[in-house]
Amino acid sequence: MSGGRTIHVTVNGTRFEREVEPRRLLADFLREDLGLTGTHVGCEHGVCGACTVLLDGDSARSCLTLAVQADGAEVETVEGLGTMDSLHPLQRAFREHHALQCGFCTPGMLMTALDLLRKHPSPSEAEIRDGLSGNLCRCTGYEHIVRAVRAAAAAQATAAQATAATSEREAGGAAARRHGPAAAAGGDGDAGGEPA
Ligand code: FES
Ligand code: FES
């Protein structure tokens, strides 16, 4: 390739080295060079949000980003979210709440929602609507999408509480093994009560 430039991009945890033309769009790089066609291309000029990916943790329009701008960056696409056997909580919520019809906008919606929930784990409905306002859907009327993101946020909060409770229990168990039952009960494990 004449005038090509070598870039190194990590996509969904895998590092790629490719030579690209300086004018190659990130969307085309992902879809055509890497075969990651989950990122959709709709308007191709930054309006619809279908091409949204995360670039170093921030949502970005891949139709407005050059592949060379992603050199050295971490890119996350919808393919990195979950698998058919193990859906990401957002994907599960979209399925459970009928948040997609034709599915064309869905990859962009999911990546935008992922960015939103990482930065605002408990968003209000207004914040969800605002966060998704740059993504267009011609099918759903948005209600189900908003409902799905709320459900995913709630599921995320429940999972975080369960993880915290498990860590607490494990910490208590480890203390008990180190110092005996008094430590697990909150004591220091060696005093044995008030002095006589
Ligand atoms: S295809 Fe990128 S915003 Fe529409
Ligand atoms: S589900 Fe069809 S465009 Fe959103």
Word description of this protein:
The structure is a single chain. This protein folds into 2 domains: 1-80, Ubiquitin-like (UB roll) (Roll); 82-186, [2Fe-2S]-binding domain (DNA polymerase, domain 1), CATH 1.10.150. Helix content is 40%, strand content 13%. It has helices at residues 26-33, 89-96, 106-119, 125-131, 143-179, 181-184, and strands at 5-11, 14-20, 52-55, 58-61, 74-76. It has 6 helices and 5 strands. The protein is an alpha+beta fold and 196 residues long. The protein starts with a strand and ends in a 12-residue tail after the last helix. Helix 2 packs across helix 5 (143-179). Strands 2-1-5-3-4 form a 5-stranded mixed beta sheet, with helices on both faces. The structure holds FE2/S2 (inorganic) cluster (2 copies). One FE2/S2 (inorganic) cluster is lined by residues 41-44, 46-51, 61, 63.
